[in-house]
């Protein structure tokens, strides 16, 4: 008995070119092929099947959801090939299945497996259930070199997971993507996570300052980025440019704002994200400060305090008060070593990160997701 084949792949995996090549090979051998396509896919013409490489030919049959196929159209055919099969109705998939049984003609269906919301299309779902052979046509992610598994819909360059399931477009609207790049570009609309509640934080420590390099304690003083710090900030730009953020915030201190600007971001300044106020010790060389106080600073013990300055509990209160008011989404935050370390302590981790690096945090579920260095 002939088989029903489902060959699926992400956008840009050359499915249609593969389809046309198979049709050409059959016809070179003097065999008859019947080409079917959904009528709703009229991007290149109502009855045209066209690959991105420029190959074009006409479909023999264009179908709608309620089309009843006539067996007489398939008498003497050696193969039936279907383009964009994800748009087929269950009714049509059942008819294709019946052609393989009743007429003993192989049927090869090409299409997408899932939509931009990572859900199976109607036609693809039924083919996954009924096909004798399921094969993947592989391609790489448009944003990295991993294998593409999803299709991302783009709006003004950012990923989008809202709208109608069927919205015809090509490269300008959809791109193949791996799971990691899909999540990076979708943000709060991510269908793969608990997006109704998830607050994701990308916490960037500002670039090195002249004061950092000189061993001067910098809290609320206005420290300046060093040449190295400027380079660290600029190096962040390509790492952040393809990530979707619902909003960008920064400490209102100049070094954090400058880091954001060199990284290609336009943040909203927030006083609550400022570094510790080190009171009487602010702006002084660390080597001149009491050793027991410096040891407490580096070990970040809960009883750490500064004369006429802030302790960990005070900084924790103002920072977490701000974070707890954030709506679900992905946020980029340019801040300071002490502030980020305070946030990490809320997660049960004592994490001090270097200048110009980032800590990625699931604030909703209170765990560290990764780092950007």
Structural class: alpha/beta
Estimate the strand proportion.
15-25%
Strand order of the largest sheet: 5-2-6-7-1-8
**Which architecture name of the largest domain does CATH use?**
3-Layer(aba) Sandwich
Summarize the model shown.
With 373 residues, the protein is of the alpha/beta class. The protein is built from 10 helices and 17 strands. The model has no long low-confidence stretch (mean pLDDT 89).
What does this structure look like?
- This protein is of the alpha/beta class and 373 residues long.
- The protein has two domains: 4-138, P-loop containing nucleotide triphosphate hydrolases (Rossmann fold, 3-Layer(aba) Sandwich); 199-372, Phosphoglycerate mutase-like (Rossmann fold).
- It has ten helices and 17 strands.
- A six-stranded parallel beta sheet has the order 5-2-6-7-1-8, sandwiched between helices. It has a six-stranded mixed beta sheet with strand order 14-13-15-12-16-17. It has a three-stranded antiparallel beta sheet with strand order 10-9-11.
- β16 (358-362) and β17 form a beta hairpin.
- It is elongated.
- The model has no long low-confidence stretch (mean pLDDT 89).
List the keywords.
single chain, alpha/beta, Rossmann fold, 2 domains, 6-stranded mixed beta sheet, 10 helices, 21% strand, elongated
How do the helices and strands line up, and which of them pair or pack?
Elements: E1 4-8, H1 15-28, E2 33-38, E3 48-50, E4 56-58, E5 61-63, E6 79-82, H2 90-102, E7 107-111, H3 122-130, E8 133-136, E9 150-155, E10 158-160, E11 174-177, H4 179-186, E12 199-205, H5 210-214, H6 227-240, E13 247-251, H7 254-262, E14 268-270, H8 291-299, H9 312-323, E15 329-335, H10 337-346, E16 358-362, E17 367-372
Parallel strand pairs: 1-7, 1-8, 2-5, 2-6, 6-7, 12-15, 13-14, 13-15
Antiparallel strand pairs: 3-4, 9-10, 9-11, 12-16, 16-17
